[in-house]
Amino acid sequence: MSAVAASATATGLAPSGGTTAPDAAERRRFRRAAGRFPTGVTVVTAMADGQPHGTTVNAFSTASMDPLMILVALGNGSRLREHALHSGSFAVTVLAAHQEADARHFADPARPPGAAGFAGRPWRPAGHARSPVLTEGVAAFDCSLAAAFPAGDHTVLLGRVERFEVLSDGPPLLFADSRLLPGP
After folding, report:
1. What's the angle, vertex CA 21, arms to CA 19 and CA 25, rounded to 5?
2. pLDDT of 13
């Protein structure tokens, strides 16, 4: 386990100031309010024991231009979270507007693990992380794990971008109001 992974594991984040967790109605209202902000849709990937793994993520952002850094948030129960923390690297593919099926596939917890989960989906290994890049996306970021931060029921991974590329000039896939939508 990397030092970054040990730090993320050891510093769990409890509700602050003795506040109680939001009830189901408040979580729904929060999700509805946050859903008003459109986001891109990505598939974050990592390699573990020679096998590719991936999950759909819309909590993605650039974080720094010097050095080049991005961040993603992964659920604490995510298999991919563990793989990225242990390997110390990951890749992010920004999905194209026509990749709604890929977004739904990688969001499905019942999808097959490992290489079987990528069957029928064109990909190649990223140059640095060797994690899958879905070649039909619009952009890709190949990252080493710079830091991981606990954030309630998620972990924020800060990635130092080792390589990046524009894969297509086509429109991206967007997520807003709990729906996948083609970008402009």
Report:
1. 130
2. 39
Nearest-angstrom CA–CA distance, 131 and 52: 7
Distance of CA 26 to the CA centre of its chain: 25
**C-alpha span between 78 and 154 (Å, rounded):** 9
What is the DSSP code (8-state) at residue 96? B
Distance CA 184, CA 15 (A): 39
Q: Determine the Cα–Cα distance for residues 173 and 184; give it in Å rounded to an integer.
A: 9
Q: Quick check: helix, strand or coil at residue 107?
A: helix
Task: Give the integer Cα–Cα distance in Å for 131 and 47.
Answer: 5
SS3 state at 28: helix
Q: Read off the tokens for 12.
A: 């769990």
* pLDDT, tens digit (0-9, with 9 covering 90-100), for 74-118: 999 998 999 999 999 999 999 999 999 999 999 999 999 999 999
| Pairwise CA distance, residues 31 & 48, whole Å | 32
- The label of the residue with tokens 């040990």 reads 6
CA separation for the pair 130, 53 (Å, rounded):
11
